[in-house]
Amino acid sequence: MTATTRHARIEALTFDLDDTLWDNRPVMEHAEPTHYAWLDTELADWLAASPLGELFAGHERYAQRFPLAAYIERRLALARRHPLRRGDFTWLRERALIELLEEYGLPRSAAHLWAAAAIGHFLTLRHTLTPYPEAIPLLDALRQDYALAAITNGNADLQRLELAQHFPVVIAAGELLAPKPDARPFLAALARLGSRPARALHVGDSWKEDVLPAWRLGMRVAWIDKHDERRTDLPPGVHRLAHIRELTALLERLDGER
Length: 258
What we know:
The protein is an alpha/beta fold. The chain folds into two domains: 3-22 and 130-256, HAD superfamily/HAD-like (Rossmann fold, 3-Layer(aba) Sandwich), CATH 3.40.50.1000; 25-126, Four Helix Bundle (Hemerythrin (Met), subunit A) (Up-down Bundle), CATH 1.20.120. It is 49% helix and 11% strand. The chain contains eleven helices and six strands. A six-stranded parallel sheet has the order 3-2-1-4-5-6, covered by helices on one side. Helix 10 (207-217) links the parallel strand 4 and strand 5. It is elongated, with a radius of gyration of 21 Å.
């Protein structure tokens, strides 16, 4: 990255979502077991009242046959078998459930219906989240001066969140079959914003999926060091922040360096 590039005026900001604008760990720690327990309970009740129930009389319940760890392992196996889908987490979840439910003995049509219902419940829980208190006021201020876009590998649907109004451009990289660190989601976001890497800064928490791909494109990067790694090998144009609340000060400093 040349000196000219480093001092070009920033006109566009791209943001990662999970663990950048909210703490995603407690969200997933709740959503993962809760939706799976819901499936186990609802499926058992349905089978008990269904003509299919006779076929399952005396059988162990679904979650006994396939505990949560088996569901997680099936998703990982699917990601290995379908590398282009490795970032499409909703597809991986639903496909894994369909396979397990069929192996449990459900007819294919019932397996699809129950997998879809479980994913719907999961997505409701997955969107029960609270952005960092600084996030919305920060974005309110930033959108006055910068073009904003979100680039996520996750399956958070911004249209279900208050944050949606701040991002006219949203790139769901996994659904594009090009999850970060692939460069294409970044290029797609910049193209839709009408900007170019030298005039953009990416904000994200992952060194591998946010920092490196954005920096290699020539973008500047605000690395949210969520896990306090404190790396000493920051390349020119990469700036470590402990929290999203520090972004405004960084932008003011970069603007003053021009």
